[in-house]
Amino acid sequence: MTLLQAPSAVVMIRPHHFCSNPETRDDNAFQTLADQTAEVTSAQALAEFDGAVETLRAAGVTVHVFDDTSRDTPDSVFPNNWFSTHAGGHVAVYPMYAPNRRKERRWDVIELLKRDYRVQDVIDYSGLEQDNLALEGTGAMVLDHIGRIAYTVKSNRADPVLLERFCTHFNFEPMVFEAKDAAGRDVYHTNVLMGIGTDYALICLEMITDPARRAEVKQRLEETGRTVIDLTPEQIAGFAGNALELKGRKRLLALSARAAEVLRPDQIALIEQSATLLPLNIPTIETAGGSVRCMLAGIHLSTRERTVS
């Protein structure tokens, strides 16, 4: 059950020309503009990325790194939006909302998965971009791999018809709700609002606008055996919800240093009953409106047996 929710391997994309994406700024309230030159910003992001990879590997997590040298893909450091992997050998490829984010998809990543892991099928939804439909992977959906529930905030990044299609193909139940931040702005991605571990869930229940739906979401999380750790809107602004449980030498919760700092001691104590916090220092990367969870595309696939000739 541990590995079902907490992958032991991830794909990460190393950005050589990182910047805050102008095409997503209108609906991503988490984005900020760096107060320095593009060259300095890019160099800082690269250093933060390399430090994060080193920390993850030192903790026993397998990290597959792909370099992105394009200037046309400013958000490529967040690959969890364009593909996901699933137990049983299934891979999904997703349609993206912003035109420049559609360029992030790269089939060498899928080929690596096929080479090193057992992949039965790849279901590619990306052609639906022609109809202006988007479903941005595990940004738009926070997946409970144990309870088979896809928690999804209503947004232009999560088309309801596509969500139903994904849930039918991959055997999830959709749990859809509206959410707004403290300023009344729509939440653009579910994974900034919540993250699900094996034994606990991080979520800001207050940001779910409908009280009845809020109670239902809490109940479903508790029914699947999770301790609900209720975050504040201020903690969400510090990316405390944008975390991913991983399995290294022990069970870990990867999150940003900023997110770790805004968690209260009692919340940390609840998490640490199940997982050890693994803070990654990525302040420059966070100016793009995503944090650690967005950087990690978890691999929920079985490794292939290596044959020796």
Automatic annotation (TrEMBL):
Signal sequence region: none
InterPro entries in the record: Amdntrnsf_FN0238 (IPR014541)
A Pfam family that the UniProt record links to this protein: DDAH_eukar
Gene3D superfamilies from the UniProt entry: L-arginine/glycine Amidinotransferase, Chain A
Annotated organism of origin: Phaeobacter italicus
Top-level lineage group: Bacteria
Protein name: Amidinotransferase
Lineage: Bacteria, Pseudomonadati, Pseudomonadota, Alphaproteobacteria, Rhodobacterales
